[in-house]
Structures
1.
Amino acid sequence: MKSGFFFCVLLSLLAQLSQAQYHYQNLMNYLESRMAAMEERIALWHEQNNRYNSDIKKFRQQAADLLEKLGRDHEKLRQDLEGAGVRVDRVEREMDYIETKNIPKPCVKVADKTVEQKAVEKQQKKKDQMFELTVCDQIVSNIRAMKILKRLGSPKGIWTRDSRTAKIYVFNGTSEDTLYEFSTVKELSTSSGLSTGKQITLPSAWNGTGHTVYDGFLYYISERSELQVIKYNLENSSVVDRAVLPVQDNMSVYGLNPETLVDLFADEEVLWALYAVGDTINLAKMDSDTLDIEQMWDTACPRKNAEAAFIVCGTVYVVYNTRPPSRSRVQCVFDVNEMVMGGEAPLLYFPRRFGAHSSLKYNPVERQVYAWDDGYQIIYRLSLQKKLWALVPPPEE
Ligand SMILES: *[C@@H]1O[C@H](CO)[C@@H](O)[C@H](O)[C@H]1NC(C)=O
Ligand SMILES: *[C@@H]1O[C@H](CO)[C@@H](O)[C@H](O)[C@H]1NC(C)=O
Ligand SMILES: *[C@@H]1O[C@H](CO)[C@@H](O)[C@H](O)[C@H]1NC(C)=O
Ligand SMILES: *[C@@H]1O[C@H](CO)[C@@H](O)[C@H](O)[C@H]1NC(C)=O
């Protein structure tokens, strides 16, 4: 009986068990299907995520491209703006110089005084800077100031200062046999005329406005029978030497100053000569002792509309103007050392005036130009800066 009872219990247990198993199986099936569904969704998310990621990547790429393009456009815009700036500058200058044609003459007295005070202070500073000239590596960056000193008779002429002896020499006109010596600028500016200076009469007449004085020697151009440069000792009034210059057809070096066939500039050891060959201005380097020509260059600066030139540190600055006269400007530069690049040389405008320069003589000690402008004696003070190449350290040995 007992075994029957147990069998019954076992059966019911088994039944319960199988029922439990059934439930369990159901649960498992359910869970599995949920898992599958979730896996599906996860897979979907992954896919979406990937797509999203690649979309983001694409977007980033596009954004980067866009930014780059924007950057390029900006650069171009900047360049355009710069170009426009330069053009505005140029137009401004052109207007400046058109204006000068219509404005009345500047008041000489007022300009004289204000510039004079400044000049005195600056002169004091400059005194210490004498003879740093041997290291000559500078270009003219600006015409800083102007002083109108006097008005002596003739519209054309030259005045210059011996940078060694500091004496002033005045040549009134374009062909004479006399010149005048003054011991200081002040002596000239306060003089009532040229007669208060020391009168020097030369053995032959000078022609044009190309003369120069250095260390007590006058180098002047004479056109008696042929074109000569004459070296003259001003101390004991004697001709030291003379040489014939190879100038073609009596052609003037500057188109706007037909009387000047040759323009001379003397410094420590060199005598420079500017003269005409064809349509351009040529430069000769002469030995100031022997008057030998050592080297010649074609500066490629046109003679047409040139009125004068000056030389600073082996660089020729040719000054141009128009007829009738307007605003003078340096528009062509030639460096014998080929160190001043075209772009480096600035376009220099002279202060507003209308005259026409008949000569420009640079004094390296004072860093100023003695100019004769339509009968006025003017001093232009220059700002110099190092040539760009001088900033590059020399190659090591
Ligand atoms: C300079 O020369 C001109 C003529 O060439 C003359 O009229 C004038 O008086 C001269 N000036 C002086 C200060 O001698
Ligand atoms: C040079 O000057 C002298 C003296 O004034 C004059 O007689 C001569 O005609 C001048 N020469 C030229 C080419 O102007
Ligand atoms: C002038 O002086 C120099 C030296 O200073 C001399 O050689 C020359 O002979 C002198 N000339 C005259 C004419 O006195
Ligand atoms: C140059 O000028 C001089 C002096 O005026 C004259 O004697 C000579 O004949 C001229 N030469 C030429 C080529 O015109």
2.
Amino acid sequence: MLLLLLLTNAFVLLPWAGAGRIIGGTKVKAHSRPYMAFLEIKSGSKPSWCGGFLIRPDAVLSAAHCVDMRWRPRVTVILGAHNIRRQEKSQQRIPVVKRVIHPQYSRKDGKNDIVLLKLKKKANITGNVQCISIAKENERVSAGDLCTVSGWGQTSKKEVLSDVLMEVELEVKNEEICEQLSSNFQCQSMICVGDEDSKKATSHGDSGGPLVCNKKAYGIVSHALKKNHFAEVFTRISHFEPWIQKQLKRFSRKAISCFPFSD
Ligand SMILES: *[C@@H]1O[C@H](CO)[C@@H](O)[C@H](O)[C@H]1NC(C)=O
């Protein structure tokens, strides 16, 4: 019955200006997700916002649809933030000098929705700014795993952004649920996530934010059902891990550590 209802709804990409939203989430303890990045995107006259996450002091991972404008957008990454409307001492604002969108990314069907952003200068690793490990090629989440997504996306229709970082817990779903909803769903490169039982946790974080399971980033917020928040598609990081490592080597041939004082 529920599935039938959902089948009548088209699977659509979140518009990049919408940046996704967390509904029914809870406020995160300040600076407890030090890998979280807030992306300010300027293209033409309209600014937009997305989430992202620090995987190396010079590199932030996000969703390609956040920055796929034809005219290269100006992107600034804000690290170490809790309240995004304030200028907190913990914040580090760093411009992006390069966006590497996956060569097979398709805006139309949301495939390969991943971008690696190179920062103009290395972030200072502090108590409030840290990297998160990403899933290796052979590390996959399974149906039933509980993961969290955080973001500054809107929490209701009235507001554009949440002031402070919010978080929601979501469950990894059987891939068949998303396959039945969309012919564009690809198991190998996408993760099907949702929570049909709890109205409090049926939405998702900002586009580009990480799906964190067991302290590692396994997914990137990509796209969702327009009306039903219960099935959402995340980019499956493990599938792209070799590509990510290759791009990181291009950014810098020298190894860059996420731990201060170790290099
Ligand atoms: C990192 O710290 C140094 C020294 O305090 C400072 O000059 C630099 O601007 C900081 N970098 C960022 C990205 O905030």
